[in-house]
Task: inverse folding
């Protein structure tokens, strides 16, 4: 961070770089930061009082919106410029068919979390579950039991703040495991550089490959279509109960609305992904021990299936965990994968990693803050500055910025 430009909270939030993960609120505390609940679902931090220079420095060190540093290479890992540290890439699923069915894809993350609790590798899992008060939104949860872990399975496509209680987890001093999006893992890895308790207590960092999350209005439109009101909801499931499973809502009086994943994504224009997701340099979990992903040919499911995850094992610790989970009968593996498979399964991820530096150039020219990236892989895979593709990406961002479309 030495000598780097420092951004104020207002600059970060006001320029669409905040993903609402909650780490700044947790670390700096409620006497410094609160948040506003907004219609789009993102919990934006807000100053209670003017931050001191030291607090602003801490914010700049931990905020994943502006600081995306790639860790040193794990000595046991191959390094791929596009896909990062790779110890192994395999495919599989949760051995328990109920877990596999209930989860987002094949239940990889849930099965690993269950195995961690069962084997005593950590005391609890920090992750997200549906907010019982507002089931379209999520709440951070400490899961101590198998039931808690299973209840938190599934992908949640609205904004989330899984790190909002991380400080109290560190203060409690008990070993835990964190499951979150790649940006959440970046935030925790950033914190580890200034707080040694993260590495001492967080046994594993598990993540999902992430295509971005949407403003709540995308899902409120579904409720309108189903003639349901958010206030009436008892449940809202974005994904799971099959792979990919339906998106459905249930009202307390039993009324229900449901749509398919294919239909949800067929209307891709109606997704209102946050700007920071569109310029994300690491939506693939470069700093995690294991990243779980969908493995559909070309990136799109042809229909429902039983659910298979890819596992990108990034560290030796991740490999040991997966081997243990397989030996204990929690995870079933049924195939090896290669980098070329990842390119095939995740074309949107490779496109974005090629493009982000061109998008940052447009932001820099406009005098706007943009994510700082220490990522040797990104240096290699970024579009060449003299290429047509680079100019196209840069001018596309310039146009977006001129319309103010980066702010939400
Ligand atoms: C916003 C979003 C975008 C995604 N985009 C892609 C993509 O582009 N390509 C791809 O291959 N996969 C994507 N996924 C991941 C995919 O949907 C599965 O989550 C992944 O394959 C793991 O499946 P699983 O069955 O192991 O998960 P599960 O066993 O169901 O476990 C999911 C875990 O993730 C946590 N979680 C769910 N939603 C969130 C969230 N929003 N923020 C933080 N933690 C969360 C849950 O608490 C749970 O612990 C995305 C997921 C999300 C949430």
Result:
């Amino acid at each position: 961070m030495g000598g780097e430009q420092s951004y104020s909270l207002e600059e970060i939030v006001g320029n669409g770089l905040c993903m609402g993960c909650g780490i700044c609120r947790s670390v700096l505390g409620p006497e410094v930061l609160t948040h506003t609940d907004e219609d789009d679902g993102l919990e934006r931090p807000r100053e209670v009082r003017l931050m001191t220079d030291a607090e602003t420095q801490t914010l700049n060190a931990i905020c994943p919106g502006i600081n995306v540093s790639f860790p040193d290479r794990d000595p046991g890992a191959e390094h791929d410029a596009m896909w990062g540290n790779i110890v192994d890439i395999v495919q599989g699923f949760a051995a328990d068919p109920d877990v596999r069915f209930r989860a987002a894809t094949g239940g990889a993350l849930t099965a690993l979390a269950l195995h961690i609790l069962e084997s005593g590798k950590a005391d609890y899992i920090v992750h997200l579950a549906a907010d019982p008060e507002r089931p379209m939104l999520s709440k951070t949860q400490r899961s101590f039991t198998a039931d808690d872990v299973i209840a938190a399975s599934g992908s949640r496509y609205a904004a989330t703040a899984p790190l909002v209680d991380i400080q109290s987890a560190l203060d409690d001093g008990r070993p835990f495991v964190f499951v979150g999006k790649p940006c959440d893992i970046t935030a925790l890895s950033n914190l580890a550089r200034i707080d040694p308790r993260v590495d001492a207590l967080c046994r594993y960092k598990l993540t999902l490959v992430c295509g971005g999350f949407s403003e709540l209005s995308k899902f409120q439109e579904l409720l309108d279509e189903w003639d349901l009101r958010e206030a009436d909801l008892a449940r809202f499931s974005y994904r799971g109960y099959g792979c990919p499973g339906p998106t459905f809502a249930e009202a307390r009086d039993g009324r229900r609305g449901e749509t398919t994943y294919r239909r949800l994504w067929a209307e891709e224009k109606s997704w209102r992904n946050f700007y920071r997701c569109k310029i994300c340099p690491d939506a693939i979990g470069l700093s995690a021990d294991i990243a779980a992903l969908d493995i559909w040919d070309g990136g799109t499911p042809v229909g429902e299936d039983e659910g298979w995850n890819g596992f990108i094992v990034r560290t030796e610790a991740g490999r040991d965990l997966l081997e243990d989970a397989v030996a204990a009968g929690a995870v079933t593996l049924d195939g090896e994968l290669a980098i070329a498979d990842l390119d095939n399964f995740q074309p949107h991820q490779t496109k974005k990693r090629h493009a982000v530096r061109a998008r940052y150039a447009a932001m820099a020219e406009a005098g706007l803050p943009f994510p700082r990236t220490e990522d040797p892989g990104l240096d290699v895979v970024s579009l060449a500055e003299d290429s047509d593709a680079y100019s196209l990406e840069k001018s596309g961002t310039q146009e977006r910025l001129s319309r103010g479309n980066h702010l939400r």
In short: The longest strand covers residues 88-94. The two ends are 27 Å apart (CA to CA). Residues 4 and 95 are 47 Å apart (CA to CA). The pocket of flavin-adenine dinucleotide is lined by residues 103-110, 127-128, 152-157, 160, 162, 179-181, 184, 208-211, 213, 239-240, 292-294, 309, 346 (CB under 6 Å).
